[in-house]
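Quick question about two entries, pasted in order.
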Amino acid sequence: MYIRNAELTLSDPMFFYSLPIHVGMLNVVIADAELELIPGGEMLDDYQVRKYAKKRKKPAAEVLLDSNFLHGAIERHFPGGSTRMGRPDIFYILLQVLQESILNKRGGLLRVYIHTKHNKVIHIAPQTRVPKSYNRFVGLMEDLFKKQEIQSGQEKLLTLKDADLFSLLDDLGKEVVLLSPRGGRPSKPEDIIREDMSLVIGGFAEGDFQTDVYSRYSAHSIFPDELTIWSVASEIVVRYECMFGPL
């Protein structure tokens, strides 16, 4: 059931206090995300990495791994890894979709978490607006990895903490729905959506989860072919909004 003071907006500090505690919530949890700084060791001395870091005017160890610019370096140090590793562009598109959704902007019923493959968890506050420029987004993520949090005034917009996927999901305390191409026969999104749930989607462009998610959760699929993570997330968010949201 959706109950809220219609006169309050997302920017109003009392907005979230106007939501009754029993109201459901959709947590979107991106698992094993390929989002990281350039790995330490020999890769930091790679000529392509040094050139790219110099262009960014940052130490190589503080630069986000991005296969769009470091494809060759990734292949040299992680053979076969360039099709999966270093994909901040995925999360740039994903967060544009989720943070600008009606469910987030008008409903306040959406929370987004990114769990990285190195067991770092990023929480994106509902009021966070993702930079329109990809380069600014990359810089924002680099600042987050360095500072552990991004604030605007007294508001924490982004936080980075150590946590594995299972600990995160246990702390959220909601029914977990895992989406994966291994989910078998596709289900209608409406059949798997719950009013109070944590939706788990893989944060990678190729391959499968590194965390042993299948040992704890049953996998579901909503389409016979593979989809981008922002396509999957948008399908669920729109359906959730129609079922439980503000409109």
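Here is the second entry:
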Amino acid sequence: MHTPNAVRAAALVCLAACVRAPEPAAPSPAVVAPVRIDCDATSADPDGDGLSESCEFDVARAFAPVLRVDRTDCLWSSRDARLRGGYLFAVQPTREGARIAYLPAYEEDCGWSGVSCWLRGPRCSGHAGDSEVIALDLTRRDAMWRVSAIYVSAHCGDDDRCRWTPEAELQRFSWDADGAAPVVWVSKEKHAHYATRASCERGNWRRDRCASEPATVRFPVVSGLQNIGARGRSRFGAEACIAGHERPIGAQDTATGLRECFWLDTASFRGWQQRRVGPPPRPYGAILRDLGFR
């Protein structure tokens, strides 16, 4: 019989030997398909950023990422066929076109389990609220829009995978049937985002896991009410504080009255959960500021 110390030592050897496996060779460059979106400059622009509300909704819906998720995830909802979350978005104009931030606003991070947690201890535990994000830069030529860069969050500050993927490297991603919206893999229980299943399986010292037969879920953009507007200018107030019963999507999953503020840099996102357990996730307001949403 192996002693606990011997097992821990073997686990350390395995981690040291396996964790820095090389990235696979990149395939040939991707040809990202453009989408025609006719934005009406005369439509209402309540956040005053120069893009009409209808235009922001149209571009967010057209480029909503395809999520590959595990049906056995702690947040999987058979009723909705997606992970439980708030599913909001923000859009701001850029010199080249626009930047979109998709905020899944997952209700929980359920933590890791297994041998590696013997070494990590309490840092394997989960927490209420999970402030992950996917951001896209779009280039516009007249009425034709296309993705020119992608950002996906994956243990930011604890892993070197939270960075923008520029146009020259977009071949790392797969794309939807139209070749316009990226496919993003979501790790089981921790909900980190990756370009491929292989990069997910290497993620965070090989603790992350992605399903071999995942569910395919389009990030739901179904209502303009999901748009949190701009900092200081939102239908939900200056700081976009949204109560559980006000959520455009998934309001039935959370307690009435609990509020989450999406433009506030100092309010940790707690997923509208009564039991605010675990380390506080990063505020969405700070994440959006780092992504250039001023």
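Reply: Residues 47-290 form one domain. Confidence is low (pLDDT under 50) at residues 1-29. Hope that helps.
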